[in-house]
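Please decode residue identities from the backbone states below.
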């Protein structure tokens, strides 16, 4: 039965039927917005949607177009890697792309609903403001007083945040369907990067990317050099990416503050930064700035949270 797009009840019935048949939420919202005059086009953060085997709808049921249904997939323990897209030589910086699109952060829209205090919680990049020039890998004097491979926080210095997890930036985030999965901290290349508070098991590392990347670079699906670790108490999963050097190994059990590499600009970047992607035990993306981990990201009282 065709949908009367001027009837809110039929629209809601159509939406419920589509979701029950495994429709992709993003494509569904776009389809409804396209066919419903005056309806807003909401921004939805992509997330895994359980897929069940649809049953045959009754003959008088609302017809759901195949364009909004997602294919049947077998569940896996880890999210599938986002497909690599061909290089798009736009020649524009991230700041220019963000200015032209005028897109708002999806997390900003839901920021009024605070994340639960418990931290039950792999791989996406940043509009850099301003674009930072590549710096050589050096040992800064203020790092020399730290014990070997240990420091008090993830970064030993305050750093501006150039992008939050959940930001919609399709011109840059070409390997994650336009959405940023990580929060980016702009720091010079060569800055020691450590794990946040807690006990972590290193489950994967990548150290074969060029330390200096560029926009749309596809090495390691845009992550560049990275370290993937899981919190042994909460099951949270963290990926510290765009590194110039990795000094951790799979199987290691490390405490928060342990240095696991040095920052850089490897992978899909426009400048040196540390990208931190955080997901909970169910694979949901979380902005680290909205969790208790943030207190251990930069020196106390020096956090620089920008938008």
């Amino acid at each position: 039965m065709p949908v009367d797009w001027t009837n809110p009840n039929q629209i809601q019935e159509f939406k419920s039927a589509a979701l029950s048949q495994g429709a992709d939420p993003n494509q569904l919202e776009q389809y409804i917005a396209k066919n419903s005059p005056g309806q807003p086009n909401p921004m939805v953060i992509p997330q895994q949607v359980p897929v069940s085997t649809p049953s045959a709808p009754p003959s008088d049921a609302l017809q759901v177009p195949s364009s909004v249904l997602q294919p049947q997939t077998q569940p896996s323990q880890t999210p599938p890697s986002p497909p690599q897209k061909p290089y798009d030589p736009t020649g524009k910086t991230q700041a220019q792309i963000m200015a032209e699109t005028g897109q708002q952060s999806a997390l900003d829209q839901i920021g009024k609903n605070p994340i639960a205090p418990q931290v039950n919680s792999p791989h996406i990049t940043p509009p850099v403001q301003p674009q930072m020039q590549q710096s050589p890998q050096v040992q800064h004097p203020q790092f020399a007083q730290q014990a070997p491979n240990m420091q008090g926080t993830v970064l030993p210095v305050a750093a501006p945040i150039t992008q939050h997890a959940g930001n919609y930036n399709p011109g840059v985030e070409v390997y994650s369907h336009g959405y940023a999965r990580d929060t980016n901290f702009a720091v010079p290349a060569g800055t020691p990067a450590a794990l946040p508070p807690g006990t972590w098991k290193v489950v994967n590392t990548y150290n074969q990317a060029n330390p200096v990347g560029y926009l749309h670079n596809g090495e390691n699906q845009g992550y560049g050099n990275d370290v993937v670790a899981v919190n042994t108490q909460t099951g949270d999963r963290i990926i510290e990416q765009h590194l110039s050097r990795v000094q951790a190994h799979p199987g290691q059990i490390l405490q928060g503050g342990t240095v696991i590499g040095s920052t850089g600009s490897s992978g899909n970047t426009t400048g040196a930064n540390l990208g931190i992607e955080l997901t909970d035990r169910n694979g949901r993306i979380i902005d680290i700035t909205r969790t208790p981990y943030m207190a251990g990201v930069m020196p106390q009282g020096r956090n620089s949270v920008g938008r």
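Observation: The first strand starts at residue 161 and ends at 163.
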